Amino acid sequence: MTDMTMTTSERRATKRGPDLQGFFLRYGLFLLLVLVILLFAWLRPSFISAGNINDMARSASIAALMFLGLTWIIAAGEIDVSFMSVAALANMVVAGLVVSGHGWAIACVAGLLVGIVFGFANGLLVAIFRLPALVITIATGGLAGSIAAAIGLGTSISLSSTGFIGTLLHVNFGVLPLLTVVVALLYGAAWFVQERLTFGHYLYALEQNRSAVIEAGVPVNRLLLMLYILSGVVSSLSGILLTADLSSGQPYIGTSYFIDGLTAVLLGGMALKFGKPNVIGTVTAVLLLAALLSGAALLGWTDAQRQIVRGVLLLCGVAVVVWARRKTRAHI
Q1: Is 175 exposed, middle or buried (CB count within 10 Å of its CB: 0-12, 13-18, 19+)?
Q2: Which of 228, 257, 291, 300 could potentially form a cystine with 123 if both were Cys, beta carbons 3.0 to 4.6 Å apart?
Q3: Higher pLDDT residue, 223 or 270?
Q4: Which residues, in sequence order, are bridge partners of residue 173?
């Protein structure tokens, strides 16, 4: 009995020894972010100028807000490919209402309702009626995108004033926008919910063994419905912010966020919880993408070259998540 206990202790001690592979698997994404920032700062000192940092932080904050709900949906083993179209529709609804003479307050409420309606529709069809999430969100995303294009008759809507949203976007704390501080606090709260509450355990258990979670009495359908509504709400909020940030409504703006969203969530799965999408990983991947795109622009890279980088990162994220999930299921 003593020998067995000692053997177990020795094994644990061995596991506590230096594990470079484990270290890089958990923290490699953070190290890559630091490396990219240092590299671009060396190649182009203007990369770390106050103005460029402010611009990167603002764009990264809007993107991170949009991808928050998507992170938890993918972590739960589902998918939502309508998030960027919902953002585009909210963007066009706000721009259309402002141009037609309605105030920014009413326009923002209408934009937020867009996210609630589409999020509820996705959740209802996927969670309650058990229809395939990919098919459903492709359909709802296509509907949202079509309505967005119809509002502007296929073209953008220019705004002469960005209202109180534009004012808030340009409030800064030092070099950082107020928006960045707010999104950081939101992600901090999301991390607490994910790591310290039973919600996080249910979330990851759903992907691993959904039947066991249902048998444990967890209201799975209600949980998934909430996740899809959350995704719709944060997507619409991002669309509202983009209206003020761009001073216009852009019906096809969601296209540029599709690859970025999947890349951020899947690549973020490489951080901390290997193979499991998580909020800290997502925000780190968003910062990495923002740094890469900003640095690439300063170096004069073409749009095609930037898309190649995005594609490579997405492939890395998909490969890591799929491999990790197969390994986890093999041990169940």
Answers
A1: middle
A2: 228
A3: 223
A4: 176
248: which strand partners?
A: 158
Tokens matching residue 267: 């690549």
Please determine, for residue 188, whether its predicted confidence score (pLDDT) is greater than 90: yes
Asked whether residue 330 is domain-assigned, the answer is no
Does residue 294 lie in a domain region?
no
- Residue 123's CB is within 10 A of a number of other CB atoms, namely 27
Domain with 215, as residue range(s), is: 53-253
Compute the average pLDDT of residues 107-129.
97
For residue 158, report the phi and psi dihedrals to the nearest 5 degrees: -85, 145
CB 249 within 8 A of CB 95: yes
Q: Where are the alpha helices (DSSP H) in the chain?
A: 2-15, 20-43, 50-75, 83-99, 104-123, 133-151, 163-169, 178-196, 198-208, 210-215, 220-246, 254-268, 279-299, 303-330
Q: 189: exposed, middle or buried (C-beta count within 10 Å: 0-12, 13-18, 19+)? A: exposed
Asked whether residue 63 is domain-assigned, the answer is yes
* 3-class secondary-structure state, position 172: strand
Is 57 among the domain residues? yes
Q: Give me the sign of the Cα torsion angle 307, 176, 66, 161.
A: negative
d(CA 118, CA 137): 9
pLDDT band with cut points at 50, 70 and 90 for residue 79:
very high
Provide the domain count of the chain. 1
pLDDT of residue 9: 44
